[in-house]
Amino acid sequence: MIPDNLREHSAAAAVDKFDGDALMGGKHELGELTLEIAPAKIVSVCGFLKYDEKFVRLSAVTAVDRFPAEPRFEVVYQLHSVERKQRLRLKCRLPGAQPAIESVTPVWRSANWYEREVFDLFGIQFWNHPNLKRIMMPDDWEGYPLRKDYPVTGTRI
Amino acid sequence: MSDVPGQFMATLEHAEPQTSGPRRMVLNMGPQHPSTHGVLRLLIELDGETITKCEPDIGYLHTGIEKECEVKNYQQAVTLTDRVDYLAPLSNNLAYCLAVEKLLQLEIPPQAQWMRVMLTELTRLNSHLVWLGTHAIDIGAMSVFLYCFREREEILRIFEMFSGQRMMTSYFRIGGLALEPPRGWHQRVKKFIDVFPSRVDEYENLLTGNPIWIGRTKGIGFISLEDMLDLGVTGPMLRAAGLKIDTRKDQPYSSYDKFDFEVPTRTENDVFARYQVRIEEMRQSAKIIRQAMDGMPPGAWKADSPHVVLPDREKMKTQMEALIYHFKIVTEGFRVPAGEVYHVIESPRGELGYYVVSDGTAAPYRVHMRTPSFGNLQAVPRMVQGILIADVIASIGSMDFVLGDTDR
């Protein structure tokens, strides 16, 4: 369901019209629109936003670790419409135990490296990703450095 | 070079063992290779001299800057952003400061904004000059490099004059500038900008009509606009494919809307077009610098916000509150209201975005850098597919990536 204060924003209204169950919430703060999407619906919503709403670019994918809160992870997608000069942020909340979400690489090929980076540094799995392996850290690295329970300094013994 | 060594085949994505057909060879380029401008490793599969597959391997320069930001306070993290893209440190400073200032809803005085515009445009010149020099030397034009570094040296001296540092200046701070602009900056910048356009003519004299340069760059490194948008490419690459996209015009920040400049585009979409776009961008940057210099509004160079901006030294000697604010800002930093913001600027390489999440404390909860080099580099396999091995250097050089920017 679309929150009342977002009705005037065309992207939010369009997503609500496309799939009312997908939209879990959202906010418009500091001039930036954030929509919270049900994780199971992320690919269909992204496809809709790209092909029907002209968000042709995926600017970035990243994550935020809300440890120890639950749901622990937020996967954040920054979308950009070149034609409408608009930006939109999508957010999916994932649980701390075995976080996983469908990959959006079928929609934007640029998601390939962005999602690999999130996998590498946060340990979030992306289903149907063409090449999900570490990108920044060495292949045999243990742990996920950007998680909040990963220490900033220290040596491995 | 060697014949299909097992270990490389294993790392090359989707490479199936060869049973018939022409013999393929895998070439390992980098990470220590003079033409990759950093520690980029490319695994290239060749059929004769034609590239059939390419896979970039990055991460050699990953330093965990995003993690480090989480344990610094907001002002300290500015110095880390310099190290991300070490050829355009002030662009990174600017993007980060604008993001945090948006969270703080801080009003920046006009002089600081214009000064920021002037210095980020000098940074653009600095970055484009390094690109032009190294790109030309990769293709074999030795002397251009020396000419470019002559002008770059003067830009670095200007940076030193402003901030005391040549490269990692950290001159922009949350709330304005780090120091008062030095006396005599106007003459110094004017002297430089008066001669600079004629220097660009010099580079063009050496390259634009040069038959070897044209032969090595025209029609090379094509990649369709649709592919680029889909693969996350931004900046001069898109403009050389005919798309008029520039964050400075589309979503103006730091009073760029008050400046008169053009966004150069070309439609040829090859290495030569990207060269022409960047050359024209240098001329436009010079135009912006001149406007900023001549029209510099008077007034403060930092925001009037005592809980964020350090007080003047003189005030600290006479006013108790100033001394208290100074102590508090230095010892514990300042708190930023909870929220999140994604601020995008046009760096010399393309779209640079800072996603800053605050939880209401004095340290950023999460800083994510959407760096242009990371997005651009992803298009390398598509761009070099099917071209000759000899054109790889020209093609990847035209992308203008910095590996520090890619790996963070």
Q: Please outline the major beta sheet of chain A.
A: 5 strands, mixed
Domain module count of chain A: 1
Determine the strand fraction of chain B and express it as a percent band.
5-15%
Biggest sheet: strand arrangement of chain A: 1-2-5-4-3
**CATH top-level class of the largest domain in chain B:** Mainly Alpha
CATH superfamily of chain A: NADH:ubiquinone oxidoreductase Nqo5 subunit
Number of DSSP strand runs of chain A: 7
Strand content of chain A: 25-35%
Query: How far is it from the N-terminal to the C-terminal residue of chain B, by CA?
Result: 31 Å
Task: Determine the oligomeric state from the structure.
Answer: heterodimer
Radius of gyration of chain A over all CA atoms, rounded: 16 Å
The count of DSSP E runs of length 2 or more, i.e. the number of strands of chain B, is 8
**Poorly predicted segments of chain B:** 1-10
Number of helices of chain A: 3
The helicity of chain A comes to 10-25%
Provide key terms for this protein.
heterodimer; A: 157 residues; alpha/beta; Beta Polymerase, domain 2; 5-stranded mixed β-sheet; 3 helices; B: Cytochrome-c3 Hydrogenase, chain B; 3-stranded antiparallel β-sheet; 18 helices; disordered N terminus
Reconstruct the topology from this structure.
The complex is a heterodimer of chains A (157) and B (408).
Chain A: H1 10-18, E1 23-29, E2 32-37, H2 42-51, E3 57-65, E4 73-81, E5 86-94, E6 100-102, H3 111-122, E7 125-127
Parallel strand pairs in A: 2-5, 6-7
Antiparallel strand pairs in A: 1-2, 3-4, 4-5
Chain B: H1 6-11, E1 25-29, E2 41-47, E3 50-57, H2 65-69, H3 77-82, H4 89-104, H5 110-139, H6 142-163, E4 172-173, E5 176-177, H7 185-207, H8 211-217, H9 225-231, H10 236-239, H11 247-250, H12 271-294, H13 313-318, H14 320-332, E6 339-347, E7 350-358, E8 366-370, H15 372-377, H16 380-384, H17 392-397, H18 403-407
Antiparallel strand pairs in B: 1-2, 2-3, 4-5, 6-7, 7-8
